Automatic annotation (TrEMBL):
One of its GO terms (molecular function) is iron ion binding. This is Cytochrome P450. Heme binds at C43. The keyword ATP-binding does not apply. Its cofactor is heme. Pfam families: p450. PANTHER family: CYTOCHROME P450 FAMILY PROTEIN, EXPRESSED, CYTOCHROME P450, FAMILY 76, SUBFAMILY C, POLYPEPTIDE 5-RELATED. The keyword Iron applies. Keywords: Heme, Iron, Metal-binding, Monooxygenase, Oxidoreductase. It comes from the Eukaryota.
């Protein structure tokens, strides 16, 4: 669904900014984007994640530089109900 070209233009391109323009919601009402699932069994942690994620991610980026063992990042994915990375990401923090 995340790469369906009927839904997303240039669907294969990594383009997080696209979400700034589309005006769809990620809280289970718009099925084009359901990172927390939808319906009665959707993620009950959504309100917590919604508040904390920016803070956690911002702190990690602010406090560390990040690198990978190989120096590059493999963005291939594997097919499934949700989009997952083919190879797990091993991010190594480097103290600033
Ligand atoms: C970015 C953060 C998170 C994402 C993307 C996420 C995503 C998801 C997804 C996709 C599901 C399955 C929903 C479905 O079956 O329709 C789920 C279930 C669940 N999540 Fe999260 N989650 C996040 C954070 C959290 C947090 C912070 C908590 C708890 C503090 C949490 C607790 C749960 C629980 C208990 C379920 C099982 C719900 C059930 O089966 O009824 N999640 N989550």
């Amino acid at each position: 669904m995340g790469q369906d070209s009927n839904v997303w233009s240039d669907a294969q391109r990594f383009d997080p900014e696209r979400f700034l323009e589309v005006g769809i919601d990620y809280k289970g009402r718009d099925f084009e984007l359901i990172p927390f699932g939808a319906g009665r069994r959707m993620c009950p942690g959504l309100p917590l994640a919604d508040r904390m994620l920016h803070l956690m991610l911002g702190s990690l980026i602010y406090k560390f530089d990040w690198k990978t063992k190989e120096g590059t990042m493999d963005m291939s994915d594997k097919f499934g109900f949700t989009l997952q990375k083919k190879l797990p990401l091993m991010a190594i923090p480097v103290e600033l």
